[in-house]
Amino acid sequence: MKPQDIKLIALDLDGTTLTDVNTLSNRVKYMIEKAIRCGIELVAASGRPYASLPKNVLEIEGLNYSITSNGAAIHDKSGKRIHSSLLSENSVINLLKVTEGQDLIFEAFVNGLTYTDSRYTANPLKYGCSEAYVDYVKASHGHIDDMRNFIYNHRKELDSIEIVCTDPNKRADIKQLVRENAGGLYITSSSENFIEFMAESATKGCALDRLCKHLGIGLQSTCACGNADNDADMIEQAGIGAAVENASRLCLDCADIIVPSNNSDGVARLIEIILTNN
User: Fold this and answer.
1) In angstroms, how far is CA 4 from the centroid of its own chain?
2) Are strands 105-110 and 81-84 parallel, antiparallel or unpaired?
3) What does the pLDDT look like over 61-102, one tens digit per residue?
4) Closest Cα to residue 106, out of 174, 55, 51?
5) Which fold has domain 8-84+203-277?
6) Do 95 and 174 touch, CB atoms closer than 8 A?
7) What digits encode the pLDDT tens for the residues 181-220?
8) 242-245: long-range pairs with CB below 8 Å, 24+
9) pTM for this structure?
């Protein structure tokens, strides 16, 4: 990695900044705060909607912006949404149409809140949720019996639609079906058992570019770090793209630098390297 004047660091949360048990280590928190004290803008860049961001991250003094819902929204420190890239009504209708007749577990993000199929919240482990995230799933704002109807009724205000599926072959089939029959969608994954659908302009990379323009920071002066496919375009866009060693193959291939895993304080090591080189 070449020394650069890094002015902004965008950090994915789950699987990157947070450990596998959904905690923020003392060392990572200390290094984030140190970077902020050194004048670097720190940004949380999460697949989660705003209301589900961890309080111990949001409460970090000087963390002024959050990219949420995989890039569909940008929020300032007060929680005010300063940008939205909503799904189009037509894309939502097409997605529902091409998956009609399939018994799928849906989630939907609306106005920074999560609405989840009640079957998933009743038994998250059955659908591949790890023990550490059971409480997170159960804390969804809405537990909905008929998610298809809910999604249709909110078709003009959706940040994201997600499908939870533990069968890799079925996930592949659904992705292919949607790609071929429902245009205008960005399809990605934040974890193994999820398929996530957003507007084509709603990616973490697009959101990073928008936030940099808002702040007057060039992309060449940014660093982004992540672990999953939904982080790849952000990693590729940034001046320095980083991946934790537990990252997906796509992330690793896009990265300029690979740091230790999320369970080994990789983000802290990344910040150390940046502060040394800056």
Assistant:
1) 26
2) unpaired
3) 999 999 999 999 999 999 999 999 999 999 999 999 999 999
4) 174
5) Rossmann fold (3.40.50)
6) no
7) 988 899 999 988 999 999 999 999 999 999 999 999 999 9
8) 242/270, 244/15, 244/16
9) 0.94
d(CA 236, CA 254): 5
- Are 8-84+203-277 and 89-199 in the same CATH fold? no
Give tens-digit pLDDT for 27-51: 999 999 999 999 999 999 999 999 9
Could you please state the CATH topology (level 3) that the domain comprising 89-199 is classified under. Answer: 3.30.1240
CA-nearest of 38, 95, 41, 39 to 65 is: 41
Question: For the chain, what are the domain ranges?
Answer: 8-84+203-277, 89-199
Parallel, antiparallel or unpaired: strands 257-259 and 65-68? unpaired
Q: CB of 46 within 8 A of CB of 24?
A: no
Place of tokens 């080189």: 277
- Residues across the chain: 278
Per DSSP bridges, beta strands 185-188 and 194-199 are antiparallel
